[in-house]
Amino acid sequence: MINNFYMKHFFLLSVVLMLMGQNLNAQILNDAFDFRGNAVSRKERKMALAASQQPRMLKPQAEKYLFDSSYAYQWDSVNSIWSAVPFRRVTYEYNEMGLVTLSQLCIWQTKTNSWVFDEEYHCVRDIQGNITEWIINVYDTASGTWIPDEHDTLKYYNNILVSEFGYFYNKLNNTWFTGYYSKCNNRGALLESCEVHWNESDYIIQSVSKETHTLNSYDKPIEIHYQEFDKITPGTDYDYKTVSTYQNDTILEKKMYYDWISESGLWELWGQDLYSYSNLKTEMVYQHLDDTVWINLTKTIFEYYTNNLISKVLYQHWNGVEWDNFTQTLYTYNANNALTEKLAQNYHDGSWVNSRLNAYTFDNNDNQIERLAKFWNTTTGLLTSSSYKYTYTFDANNQHKQTIYRKWSTTNLDWKNISRTDNYYSLHPVFGLPSILDDDKFEVYPNPVKQLLFINGLTEKATVSIFDVQGKLLLHQQITTNRIDVGNLPCGMYTLKIETKKGTIIKKFVRQID
Question: Is the model's pLDDT at 333 over the cut of 80?
Fold first, then answer.
């Protein structure tokens, strides 16, 4: 991926912030760090901020509590207290619809006892709240000025993203160059994307990768062509494609892999995925072509509870005679169908050995108050130092007020404090809603979602479509209930299109990090 695209800054804490309910916004804000304390990528943070946008026409609405700022503190292990002075601060500005237009990160300088800017994100939006431009600047402390860093332009058709172009600033010669782009059809299904991989320090392009999609009438990709052009080492370019077939043009049954052989000028088939389905199980078998014989390599089995929530994912290897167990992941839910445990295990000497546990605890208001990750040394059975947990505190209005991040100490065999983030809110006058349908009557929850997505206010049969951030159609079906199972979607931001006889409405939701 583009190096500049993945700069590791605390800052876009702001990006994950605006995910539609204030009770979870700040929680995901703090989840912008992995268990090592590194910030998530710039791309992920931009996706999360974009998830706050909803098509809307202005009308007066009551004041609303919005997230104004967050302050991060470090644990003083010598004195066993939290630092008196925060080391980072993120602040936010909003438009009249209550959507973020500016987020700025400041770093506390102990030498001068003052805040110094580090990075800022500008979100330019249209009248419906869609982000049409990203303007990202970094602060140059030497000159005391903001320096351009990235500029993205986005276009929409009926509130569905159809193109995005990203430009990066070359500080050596003060020019802009294209870093990536994506193009979709009017339904948001991806047609083409391209990324430039470059050396950030000297702005030398290392390679360019391109992806082209050929779609069927249901916007399912029947052929995806991948190309990478190496600018540093000529002759090491690669060119391959996948060809997919579907049952009834919608249910994937086979994906075949081909390499382009320049010497012969022909495509060479080398692998395939085979899919099979039953009532509560889906299987995918990966095979490699050896001359004219298909050889089994791996199998993935997805099992489900009777309510269609995923219960187990099992991975197996082919030993030449039969399938051997390799790893599995087990899923547990509470009475509200929220994921409470995800246990990963390795198969060793005829039995399953725990390797990782993700556990989630909720209060009576369905706020997540703890997220725990345990990593075991499968040889000793002891927890490793990679184990961590987040605890979340909420106020009487279900606004997320504080996060504490802890890691497991293999020396003291307990949890040690690492960092704390305090969040602050204030009332803002907000205008908003509705769109074609009366948006006031519809609510998509929980948002972020782990498994079941509910549509509050839906009282009639509807057709729903789900698109990923690149505009690819992932689901298109009629529903007669108010729920959709999204548990099989990867983590990220999605667009939900709801169509009824009375009209259409667009919602955004986020598949939460497990």
Answer: yes
